[in-house]
What we know:
Blueprint lengths: L5 E6 L4 E7 L4 E6 L4 E6 L5 E5 L9 E7 L4 E6 L4 E6 L5 E5 L4 E7 L4 E6 L4 E6 L5 E5 L4 E7 L4 E6 L4 E6 L5 E5 L4 E7 L4 E6 L4 E6 L5 E5 L4 E7 L4 E6 L4 E6 L4 E6 L6 E5 L4 E6 L4 E6 L5 E5 L5 E6 L6 E5 L4 E5 L10 H4 L3
Antiparallel strand pairs: 1-32, 2-3, 3-4, 4-5, 6-7, 7-8, 8-9, 10-11, 11-12, 12-13, 14-15, 15-16, 16-17, 18-19, 19-20, 20-21, 22-23, 23-24, 24-25, 26-27, 27-28, 28-29, 30-31, 31-32
Amino acid sequence: MMAQEPLATLPAGGTASAIAFNGQTNKIYVVGGLGDSLTEIDGPTFKSTTIPLQSTGSQVATTQIAVNPILNAIYVINVVNNHIAVVDGVTHAVSFVPTAASPYALALNLATNKLYVADFDANMVTVMDGHTKTAVNIRVGTHPSAIAVNWNTNRIYVANSGSNSVSVIDGYNNSIANVPAGAYPTALAVDVNRNKIYVANTQGNELTEISGATNATTSITVGSHPAEVAVNATTNRVYVAFQIPGNIAVVNPATGITTTVPAGLFEKEIRIDEWRNKIYVSDPTGNQIVIIDGATNTTKKVPGTGTYLWRIAMNPLTNEIYAANLMSKDATIYSGAPGKLSVSLLEFIGK
Length: 351
């Protein structure tokens, strides 16, 4: 079988809005955005299990998902009912932790076993302890819409789209520092190796680069309306997708040089395989995955099997790709591509 060909397509329940992978258990998790369940898929057998989320209320809108491989826990946020559903990966028992209003995005710090949820309408971040399932709320800027973690420094970065700023949370004491960004920051990514943070300013034409050491900022021009950003910390390249579709910008922060790579019709999500230097982009409008070779910037397009291929996840060991197909309410597993693995990969699996 050729690399990145579909192996299986399985129903996900509701609109398949998010997908994640547990490297310790080899399980894939898909959440249905307008449903009330989580689908667990066994990686080796493709057997699927439906886990009811038992939402507390009549309205259901599960939007984002994260997996904690250390605790074997799955976290799903519900933007309508304002809670985190905590699912036990072994027993499938579900418990609920309240958030502030409109939980919108989440990020996990596996070094501290803490989950951070950006609460869009409350202008807060909910910090949940993974061990105790207790939570506190921290006030940040206006309309926090994206969140990312530098587990190496225990700093959490929150893009505040309504106040054109980034709130930097000290993970040790939850203190806040606010850093100016560009117009309407909506996405960010962390280069853990260099302690740099990149913020996509959707109503501008630039990224804001933040020094993790000093919080000093630099502006990098990339093109109109950057909406998604991801970092390959191994190669020191930043990948940017735009609100106006059609290409990916590849940024070399050391030189400030940006290279444009033609991609799909509408790029939703970027995932990076640092060990094989491959970049995977979901293209819902084109209903495909666009694969960029990080060494040459050449592309390959893999057609989707469902409808509106929305989000993707990756198994870094096998290089299998998992896609959540929003409108056909299912998930597709794609075969892995061969490639040399770094020795450090096995140490990183699950982090």
